[in-house]
Write a structure and sequence with these properties.
Layout: E1 6-19, E2 24-27, H1 29-38, E3 41-49, E4 55-60, H2 64-77, H3 85-90, H4 95-104, E5 107-113, E6 116-117, E7 124-129, E8 135-148
Antiparallel strand pairs: 1-8, 2-7, 3-5, 3-8, 4-7, 5-6
Length: about 150
């Protein structure tokens, strides 16, 4: 049951991100937190989803070492120089991008309470764009939970 002054709600919004591709990691934590605040949510969860099959969403500590380590790890797991059947069919040079994105996953749910994302001290929400070219991504952020009700001004 919702607390007094709140109502259960579901809101779908977007966060636009421009990337250079090539396993670029973009911190979107601030934008997701801003949507929780903007839509007056108090308690619930934020679902962050990236449409498309060449990017993924996760959490990590957004620091210079990991910004190098994560792309290097994906290069070892799904090297761009490997043979991909996708390449034989489409000849678009991004077979490795699809494999990497499938390994990472396309969505993440983050709980929030008192209007604040419940992330660890060194944990940020990130988009990793594996495509082989620059892209504009519109992340879908779906907020569900209790939302402050606007007062009637009385």
């Amino acid at each position: 049951m919702a607390e007094p002054g709140t109502a259960m709600a579901l809101v779908t919004d977007t966060v636009r991100v421009c990337t250079g591709g090539d396993a670029e990691i973009v911190d979107v934590t601030t934008q997701v937190a801003a949507l929780v605040y903007e839509h007056r949510f108090v308690e619930g969860q934020a679902l962050v989803f990236v449409p498309g099959s060449t990017a993924g969403v996760t959490t990590l500590e957004y620091e210079p070492g990991l910004l190098q380590d994560i792309p290097a790890a994906f290069e070892r797991l799904a090297p761009r120089s490997a043979r991909y059947h996708h390449e034989e069919m489409w000849h678009d040079g991004n077979g490795h991008s699809h494999v990497r994105a499938a390994m990472l996953g396309c969505s993440l749910a983050v709980p929030f309470r008192e209007g604040k994302l419940l992330l660890g001290t060194w944990q940020q929400i990130v988009l990793i764009d594996f495509d082989n070219r620059p892209r504009q991504r519109d992340l879908v952020v779906q907020l569900s939970g209790e939302r402050r009700v606007k007062s009637s001004g009385r």
